[in-house]
Write a structure and sequence with these properties.
It is built from 14 helices and ten strands. It is of the alpha/beta class and about 450 residues long. The chain has three domains: about 70 residues, no CATH class; about 325 residues, 3-Layer(aba) Sandwich (Rossmann fold); about 35 residues.
């Protein structure tokens, strides 16, 4: 059957049979009979136990279990977590500096302190936005709690001419690109239809359609390539988006055309309530191999490593070496959005284990360990965060509503007859109310 791996036959009666037992090779290799491996198990022979027919009343839990054992035998066991050998880390959770031969990094004390400030203030913005939503001041909020290092590290790796395509959670990257935090709050408050000029900040508008921005980013990167511009594109998405067709299509185009784009996947372990191990049999960064470009997994709670890895990938893209997939292995410590209750599907012990890897605490520990900061500096940052939070609260509740007609202001560059017709109709509708529609 077209599209099937050799050794698997899908009949019209939904019968799935293994016609011969393949040999399973290590991760990243193809067997002679076409089976892509997914686990870390050594080569073995798969056991054929049953023919599974959809709707067969004779198949009970035992048959299902045996069939699963067969599939596991074919594919190997999925790895439970990253090993040290495949995870780029430059700062341990205890705040100890490590070295990596492929990712050298030399930061001044001022730069490290600036990273700490970024992390603290971005987390405070996230905390205040979450609280504002709980008080009814925002319609919704997508928290970045726990993912600050992935965003600040990668965001600070950008050159001025590089372009960013975010999803809906990249508040830390927006901070790095100079976006006013109130522009983010106004978007989630529903009083602004855009929030900022993408051309001015080289930071595109938030994308709600999961994974759709990867296509936009790839197309933009191909445009940079055609224009001969020495710049790169950085596009963000989550582990859940890797299951979307748009993302995989973007991988194909970027690879075939050698587009200068870096795909930055924040693997926060949960696609809303779907755990990562149910989304992929292999580490996400290894998917890049199948599309013909490199992939790397970085400690997403290590701001130093995220900076170094992203900086190298962006430079490679600018030099014409094509795309890279970065998997930032991190954890979503808060809810997916403020409409979500993560206690319904994940264990408290899991969250507590990840709190020990907190991205801010490890930088703080590094500063203290190396005597690069004292309590006076840390207290100063805390006071700045308190003042920042107070300004956000006050500005948010006092935010004016935009004129209703402004919804038409930035749809097209010039006049469009259909848009003009819609605008005139809406204006007439508002005029039908004595108070102008308010």
């Amino acid at each position: 059957m077209p599209g099937c791996a050799p050794g698997i036959r899908l009949d019209d009666d939904w019968t799935r049979r293994v016609t011969r037992p393949p040999t399973v090779a290590p991760v990243g290799h193809f067997c002679n009979d076409g089976f892509r491996t997914a686990g870390l198990a050594p080569p073995q022979r798969a056991r054929v136990v049953a023919t599974a027919r959809r709707g067969d009343p004779a198949l009970g839990p035992r048959a299902h279990k045996e069939w699963q054992v067969t599939i596991d035998g074919l594919l190997g066991a999925a790895p439970a977590g990253p090993s040290n050998s495949e995870l780029v880390q430059l700062l341990t959770p205890e705040g100890e500096r490590t070295e990596h031969p492929e990712y050298p990094l030399d930061l001044s004390p001022e730069e490290v302190r600036a990273f700490y400030r970024d992390l603290v203030l971005v987390r405070r913005m996230d905390f205040e936005a979450t609280a504002l939503q709980r008080h009814g001041e925002l319609g919704i909020w997508a928290s970045l709690l726990g993912q600050e290092a992935a965003q600040i590290g990668s965001g600070r790796a950008l050159a001025e001419g590089d372009m960013v395509f975010p999803s809906y959670r990249e508040h830390g990257v927006a901070w790095c690109r100079g976006i006013d935090p109130m522009a983010l709050l106004s978007l989630f408050r529903g009083v602004d239809y855009g929030g900022w000029d993408p051309a001015r900040h080289n930071f595109h508008l938030y994308t709600i359609v999961v994974g759709g921005q990867t296509l936009h980013a790839t197309g933009y990167a191909m445009g940079l390539q055609r224009d001969g511009t020495e710049a790169a594109v950085l596009v963000y998405f989550g582990d859940g988006a890797t299951s979307q067709g748009d993302v995989n299509e973007a991988f194909v185009w970027a690879s075939v055309f050698n587009a200068p784009v870096v795909f930055f996947c924040q693997n926060n372990q949960w696609a809303i309530s779907e755990p990562q191990e149910k989304q992929s049999r292999i580490p996400l960064y290894q998917r890049a191999r199948g599309f013909g470009f490199p992939g790397v997994r970085v400690d997403g709670n290590d701001v130093f490593a995220c900076l170094a890895v992203t900086r190298k990938a962006l430079q490679a893209a600018r030099e014409g070496q094509g795309p890279t997939l970065i998997e930032a292995y991190t954890y979503r410590m808060g809810p997916h959005t403020t409409t979500d209750d993560p206690t319904r599907y994940r264990l408290e012990s899991e969250l507590e284990a990840w709190k020990l890897k907190d991205p801010i605490e490890r930088v703080k520990a590094y500063l203290i360990r190396r005597q690069l900061a004292d309590q006076s500096f840390l207290g100063e940052i805390d006071r700045e965060a308190d003042e920042f939070g107070a300004r956000l609260r006050k500005s948010c509740v006092q935010m004016p509503e935009p004129p209703p007609m402004s919804i038409f202001d930035h749809v097209f560059v010039g006049e469009h007859p259909i848009l003009a017709e819609e605008r005139d109709g809406f204006e007439a509708y508002l005029a039908s109310f004595a108070d102008g529609g308010r």
